[in-house]
Amino acid sequence: MQKILLLNAKGGSGKTTLASNLASYFAVQGLQPTLIDMDAQGSSTRWLSKRGMEHAPIHGIAGYERNSRVTRSFAMRIPQDCQRVVVDTPAALDPQKMPELTRDAHAILVPVLPSDIDIHAAAKCITDLLLVAKIPRHEQRIGVIANRVKKNTVMYRALMRFLTTLEIPILTTFRDSQNYVKAAESGIGIFEMKPYLVREDIDQWLPLVGWLAQKNSASKDSAAKPPASAPIVNTVTSQSIATPFVLAASQSVVASLPLSATASAAAPSSSESSSSAPTEAESGRNAWGVF
Question: Which domains does the chain have, with CATH numbers?
Answer without folding.
Answer: 2-220+231-270 (3.40.50.300)
